[in-house]
Amino acid sequence: MDNIIQGISTFRGQIFPGQRQMYQRLVRDGQSPKALIIACADSRVSPEHITQAGPGELFVCRNAGNIVPPFSQQNGGVSSAIEYAVVALGVRDVVVCGHSDCGAMKGLMTPEALGKMPNVAAWLRHAAAAERIVCEAYPADMDPKERHRALALENVMVQLSNLRTHPSVAGALAKGELSLHGWFFEIETGELLAYDGEAGRFVSLEHEAELPVAEVSASPRMAAPEYAARIAAA
Ligand SMILES: [Zn+2]
């Protein structure tokens, strides 16, 4: 803890004085973060560090396995963070960010290792679809490392699907006011991959001029044809 206490002292004594006005402005004007990022609680995966974002720029929700429980009547921290970010703060982008060497994904692959962690085991059930996808659709003779990576990538996609079950997200998507992003951080190389909805796969951000989007809803979309036509004509 000594390092942490030293860090607090450095922040208060050396960093904060230079940023006092920014912090005061953020209190005066309130926060208006650019995006909601749902990332793993893993200590090596810091969304603010990876994106070099400062205070006020990102609304961050972190948990074991970057999981988004599907919407239910039961209240939960992730659901509340999503609702607040979309409804109260009006974020236009939601990111689910997975990563390499994820302990939660290892737990999903080896449930027997979770014997003493019943809460983690129950929590990871929200990622069971990713595990089933890798079991059934990927080659059976995959190297365990490759399987682990595929699972972490598929988990990002499953959590994006879960995200769409939240009424606040579904409503904002229908209004054309929200884009969903799937990211994957490679700890070893520092590389960030993003799911490209058009290409149907993850691509490296290094070669992209624009940020790939998993699902964009730049215009309203409605399933009821008479209303869809009215919106299109407007
Ligand atoms: Zn993780």
Topology:
Blueprint: H1 2-29, E1 35-40, H2 47-51, E2 58-63, H3 77-88, E3 93-99, H4 103-109, H5 118-123, H6 128-137, H7 144-164, H8 167-174, E4 178-185, E5 192-196, E6 201-204, E7 215-217, H9 225-233
Parallel strand pairs: 1-2, 1-3, 3-4
Antiparallel strand pairs: 4-5, 4-7, 5-6
Bound molecules: zinc ion.
Word description of this protein:
This protein is of the alpha/beta class and 234 residues long. Helices cover 45% and strands 17% of the residues. It is built from 9 helices and 7 strands, in the order αβαβαβαααααββββα. Strands 1, 2, 3, 4, 5, 6 and 7 form a 7-stranded mixed sheet that branches. It is globular and about 55 Å long. Zinc ion (ZN) is lined by residues 40, 42, 65, 99, 102-104.
Proportion of residues in extended strands: 15-25%
Number of helices: 9
Mean pLDDT: 92
Structural class: alpha/beta
Attached small molecules: zinc ion
Low-pLDDT segments: none
- Largest sheet geometry: 7 strands, mixed
The Rg value, from CA coordinates, equals: 20 Å
User: Helix and strand string, N-terminal first?
Assistant: HEHEHEHHHHHEEEEH
Shape: globular
Alpha-carbon distance between the termini? 60 Å
Q: Helicity range of the residues?
A: 40-55%
Number of strands: 7
Q: What would you say about this model in short?
A:
This protein has 234 residues and is an alpha/beta fold. The protein is built from 9 helices and 7 strands.
What labels would you give this structure?
single chain, 234 residues, alpha/beta, seven-stranded mixed β-sheet, 9 helices, binds zinc ion
